[in-house]
Amino acid sequence: MSPPGWPALRTAIDTGQARLVAAALEDLDEGQRRALAAEVRAYARPLARDFEMDRQFRRHRILALRVAGAGCLSGADTVARWLFRQDLRTWDEQDTTTEVLRVLRARQVPWLPELTRRLAARLRTDEWDHQRWRLIAELATSTELRDLEVPTSDGFVLGWARAQPTDGRLADTLAADPFFDALTPHLLEADGIGGLFAWSAAGWMGPGAGWPLALAALAASGRLERGRLLDRCLGRLLQGGRAAELRGFLLLHEALDPTLEEVAARTRDYSRLLADGPSRVAVAAQRALRRLDKAGRLEPDRLVEVSRAVLARPEKRLVRSQLSWLDAAARHRPEHAGQVLAAVAVAFAQEAAELQGRGLSVVLRHARHADEAARAELLDAAAALPADLAQRVASAPGGRLPVRQPTPSPALLVPAPRELSPAIGTPAELAEELAALSEDHQAVEPVALERLLAALVAFTRRDRAALADGLDPVLRRYRIQSWLPTDPAPQVTFLHEYQQLSWAVLAAVAPPARRRLLWGS
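RE: above sequence
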């Protein structure tokens, strides 16, 4: 028997009218709602699997059923899972936020703050759901939950950012937003926010709608703490990630346009980005540090350290820029030329001949300022260069030193030619050689086997009978079984193949009686 109130509620769900569902539940107490919960769940099972129903009709029923579950099910976790059910979701939903809020507020249950937190935790960063985000935002700002802390999950923060209008001046809109102070400290930590920054800065957006420029403007006005914003931006660049994410943070860094003082205070971070960051990030870090060096505020040791890492990277553009920077550094501060050139020598190990040549040109321009220790390091590194370029390093101004030639690889050593034994002159000599082969076939080299085969072929053409008579003692003394491998699956080798061929020729040359003896028959 159905509980009281179910016929009216079912009629409202059947007709897909979310407002009638909310009205039917509004005056019920918690006991009556709990009694209806089982009916609501049972109604959902066939509907979730019914894809034959008219799409529009099914969509309205699902929306009405969602409101019914929010008004009847008990507990924060149960209601949160109900509102996020994937099998009761439509992709062209109308907003039922007003009706869901109406039934939830009418219940006056103590678990609404926990429901708000659980809903916020379920928001995904890779999927934009404006209705669900708006429901959570409305709950978070409702007077009933005045003591609730604003959710700061990645999904809620990113949803808040996505909900901002794309027309007008974003900085002014953000400054007046009720969530601004609570969410901006977590903004740059949200997964996916960099992609939103990059999207908002696209050329087709309004000039004031981009997030990077808006945040920079808020930092300039004092509404955001500039130093903290810059630190968080660099932190996300150091963290790495997808190209679209990093592009958004690079745009923010560009909009902030750090001063020399700000770069100097973060030299370590920029050095790490230049040495290990993705290519576009490293280029931005290189530009910032070079500007610092041009102002005379970058320590030479730091320049040398980071240059060694950069010149080992595969990106040609980055290496060319670093070599140009080191060339200028050696020209402006010749007293540090030795350190600089020692760093330049790392480029000698580059695979690209162009980069090796650029590095060599820098060395040759400033070699006269290098001390003995630097020249020794240059000569060691020159071993990676072709011989002609290595000789130019050794002959650079400042004194001549011998080039340390690389040790040839043992695999490239060519053995000296050996004198070959003379050809076999008689059948009797051939018989002796074959006897030696049968006694110790493992010691015979391929060259010796070729010599035997050549003699067999030659004597067969000249005098087959004389050859057969000369080999007769060998054929009597040895059988093929005496030297064939006993392994049932012998390893086929070059020597084995030649031995098989030798005995095949012998079998062809020998008289029939000796041939049977040869094969052991």
